[in-house]
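Sample intake sheet
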Amino acid sequence: MRPHSFLAGLAVCGLAAPAFAGRLIAVDSSRALYEIDPLTGAKTSIGTVSANAGTTGGLAHDPVTGTLYLTSTSTDSLYTLDLSTGTATLVGFYGDAALVMHGIEWDASTSTLYGGSNGGLYTINTSTGLATLVGSTGTTSFLNLVHDTSTNTLYGTSSSTDSFYQIDRVTGAGTLIGPLGPGSTNPNGLAYDPVVNVIYAVDNSTDNLLTIDRTTGFATVVGSTGAGNLLGLVYLPDTSAATAFCFGDGAGAACPCANNGAAGNGCASSVNPNGGNLGATGSASIGADTFTLVGTGMPNSSALYFQGTSQLGGGLGVAFGDGLRCAGGSIIRLGTKNNVGGASQYPAAGDVAISIRGLNSVGDVRTYQVWYRNAAAFCTPSTFNLTNGLQTTWIP
C-alpha cells in the first residue's frame, strides 16, 4: 500500500481483553423467542413470533441491512422477523413442499442466504423465497449452517451423524471435521460471534448451549438452556456502536469512475461490484471498550483501519483512489490487517483496544474507515479503494 502523509501513525501500548458484545437470540419450534446468555447458556423469554409463521426453525441476520430472516418448517417458507414485535412477514414459498429448511445462514462475503434441507445446501432468494439446490452435503436429516466471517468458511452440523462439517458453497459437498461429542446428540441452531471468534450451538436433546472447536468439531458445554425445543440461533451485533455514513452507492459523492457499490457500502472494486463494507460491534466505552470494526467485501489484500476526527465532504466523502475518503481531520492508524475471504477486523486477539490506540476520551466523536489495496487495472491508476465510513461517540 502506498504511503500517504495523512496516515502518519502513532504507537501506543496496552492490550484489550476479549469481551462479549451483541446478543444471542434463539427461537423454538413453538415460536417462543429467547435471549441466550453466552456465559451460562441460560435463556430469557423476549417474546413470541406471530402465528402465521407456523413451526419456526432457523434464524439468519444480514448485518448490512439489519434484516432478520426466519424459516418455517411447516409452511416451507421464508419470513423476515421484527424482533421488537415478533411479527413475521412472509417473503415467499421455497418452491417445494418436500423441503424442510431447518437451518439458514447469511454469507456476508457474497450477500447470499443459504439454507439446509435433508442434507442439501440451497441458496434462497431473499425477494421471493425460492430455494435453489447447490448440491448435497453427503449427510441426511436436519442440516444447520453457520458462516465464520473471520475465515469466510461455511460450516454445518447434521442431526443424523451429530457431527461438524465444512461445506463447499460451490458444490454443496460437506467435509467431515469431527463428531460433536457427548454434549450434543441432536444439534440445531448455530451462530458465529465475530467479537470473541466463537461458534455457538444449541442442542434440543441435551438442552445445552455449546461452543464448537473448528479444528476437531468437538462441542464443549457452556451450560443448560433449560427444557425446550430450541431450533434457531443467531448472533445480532450491537448496532448502537456506530452510525454509517459516506456511501459509494450513489447517495454520497460520486465514485471516481461511476463505479457505484451496493447500498450502504463503499465504491465497487475490481473483485466486488458491491464494494467494501465497514460495520461495528460492541460498545465504544472508555471504561469497558468492546468496540470492534469489521470490514467485509474486500479483496484478499492488506487493509488499513484508521480513525479520524471529522467527516469529509459534509459526510458525503471525497474522491480518493478508486473510492471515497470519508474519515478526515486528525488521522491515527489503528492497524493493518490481511483480509481472508475478503474480511478482517480490528481489534483482533492481541491488538490494542481502539479507545487506547485512538487516544480517545469520553465525549470524543470519531470517524473510522478501511483503506484497502486493490492492485488491478480497474478504475483510476491508483491501486487502492475504501469502505464506507462509520462515526461513533465515546461514552464513559
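Comment: The first strand starts at residue 23 and ends at 28. The mean pLDDT is 90.
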